[in-house]
């Protein structure tokens, strides 16, 4: 195991790919190995700019990642791209993080692209992504982009693992309102109105103004940063420099306020708490005593002969008892 850790820390891409496979595996022995590996490399983590990127399908996420990733690797950065897509399965082909959508970035030696792990609960997928993020950092990637589709819950999950949250928007009328409805604006710290090209520039600028106006209706969730609205074209590679400037300005503002480290600390503790909850539930459900008692209790609750609270209490008591037998 420590050999894999050594190779990972030395920046070996094959080792990184193997390590992520280990983290994604559902086999108990693999999970144990993954935990040991993460513990080994922990001191080498934390060094990346962690960027969350979201937006509705078709807004231009993969096109932007291609352009932005290439812009960054040309400046000497090492860029990793991870995807969170709870709807995808390996067999169906992942929508996000698909290497064929990333063009030249997929073969760039300074870029690492990892598609979404196979379908599971959102919590399960994001847990794997969080751990993969740490592995990418240990392997020396100094920018990690986490891509997700702009659908409700995943935003909150991603906001909980990145330093800065970027939302891609379309210049079309009404989309800014759509963003508000979806709660997208709640987490977005940088908004990038994409497709400001081919005669769309004016519309994009108007959308940006509308978004700015809409943002003023919100109490910012981050008191140290007023969300920035940018326009650009992923297709033409325009606006990549201002996007990076906004990301670094955000980082400076957070650091100056002492909020950067505080956010990371909170996120780390939050991950642990979320994991405890998930693990307790998982083990509860897997317990043979619970599995045999559950159908009977459920039918008693269903036909009204037992209060739900009493059934719940009995299940917990049963589980507690079997754990100490
Ligand atoms: P995703 O689903 O968010 O990953 O979106 P894609 O990156 O796959 O882009 C969807 C479509 O929009 C593709 O046909 C892209 O070529 C196009 N597209 C992406 N960015 C731009 C842009 O900046 N300008 C224009 N005109 N088209 C774009």
UniProtKB/TrEMBL annotation:
This is LAO/AO transport system kinase. GO terms for molecular function: kinase activity. Keywords: Kinase, Transferase. Belongs to the SIMIBI class G3E GTPase family. ArgK/MeaB subfamily. The lineage of its organism: Bacteria, Pseudomonadati, Pseudomonadota, Alphaproteobacteria, Maricaulales. Pfam families: MeaB (PF03308). InterPro entries: GTPase_ArgK, P-loop_NTPase. NCBIfam families: lao (TIGR00750), PRK09435.1 (NF006958).
